[in-house]
Amino acid sequence: MSSATPRETVSSTTPEAPAADRAYQHVKAGLLDGSYPDGELLSEGEVAGALQMSRTPVREAFLRLQTEGFLRLYPKRGALVVPVTAPEARAVVEARLALESFAIDKLAAQGPDAMTAVGDELAAHPACDTAELSDADMHEADRAFHATLVAAAGNSVVADLYNALRDKQMRITATARTHTARPRITHQHAQLAAALRDGDADLAKARLREHLLGTVRAFGIAGGPYLDPDSEL
Fold first, then answer.
1. Which residues contact 54 (CB under 8 A, 6 or more apart)?
2. CA angle 209, 137, 183 (to 5 degrees)
3. How far apart are CA 146 and CA 101, in angstroms?
4. Are 28 and 65 in contact (CB under 8 A)?
5. Which end of the chain offers a freer environment for a tag, N or C, measured as fewer CB atoms within 10 Å?
6. 180, 135 in Cβ contact below 8 A?
7. What whole-number distance in Å separates Cα of residue 63 and Cα of residue 42?
8. Whole-number Å distance between alpha carbons of 196 and 187
9. What is the distance between the alpha carbons of residues 115 and 153, in angstroms, rounded to a whole number?
């Protein structure tokens, strides 16, 4: 069973919050940053001990996370971290490609100045140079980089749809990414930012597709006809 302690990334995990909420945020943070990896069996007692609370609020948190699809409970044994499946990973990344490509097209329609401004902002983003970040902070920086691109398009509905994918994105990122992949990932972020800065929407979308394809390939699965159309020719 896991005794890993996730980093404290969720501000609502405070002593003043209800115990069940604190347990929920604590465990969820560990699921999203990879502290609690796929296939791990979590113990109510270990989590309760780490948070200095009884098992009852931890049990409530486990039930909530089971409803959200993160855990599968086994009475008297613990809670299994449900692995991210290959079809789930591909589906989430396909949705990301669609939404982020829309954002690039929307920026292009606004003119080269809009694209250049966003490109400059993204080029200075920590996700383009994560050498000083922990792995967990790197995952968050990656998510924030792409969320910034989507938000810049100025479509609140698309931004909300993208943000709704946040938890799934974080889990997939933590599952697929290794420390040794940082140079490739940061280079791809920089390439995408440069294409936007240069006002080249087609190149920016090509860079985006290449970057997202690398995420699904990290699972050892094919991108499929949408993410990797050239492979189907």
1. 19, 48
2. 50
3. 11
4. yes
5. C
6. no
7. 13
8. 14
9. 10
Q: 12 near 61, Cβ under 8 Å?
A: no
Q: What is the pLDDT along the chain (233 residues), one digit of tens a residue?
A: 554 555 444 434 444 579 999 999 999 999 988 889 899 999 999 999 999 999 999 999 999 999 998 999 998 899 999 998 889 999 999 999 999 999 999 999 999 999 999 999 999 999 998 777 887 788 889 999 999 999 999 999 999 999 989 888 888 877 765 567 888 899 999 999 999 999 999 999 999 999 999 988 888 888 999 999 987 54
> Directed axis angle between helix 44-51 and helix 19-33, to 10°?
110
Could you give the 3-state DSSP secondary structure of residue 72? strand
Tokens read off for 89: 């990973």
Torsion of CA 40, 45, 46, 47, to 10 degrees: 90
Q: Is the dihedral of CA 59, 63, 65, 71 positive or negative?
A: positive
* DSSP annotation string for 122-179: HHTSGGG--TTS-HHHHHHHHHHHHHHHHHHT--HHHHHHHHHTHHHHHHHHHHH--G
Within 8 A by CB and 6+ apart from 111, the residues are: none
Query: 């404290």: which residue's tokens?
Result: 8
Determine contact, residues 40/10, Cβ cutoff 8 Å: no
Distance CA 94, CA 233 (A): 19
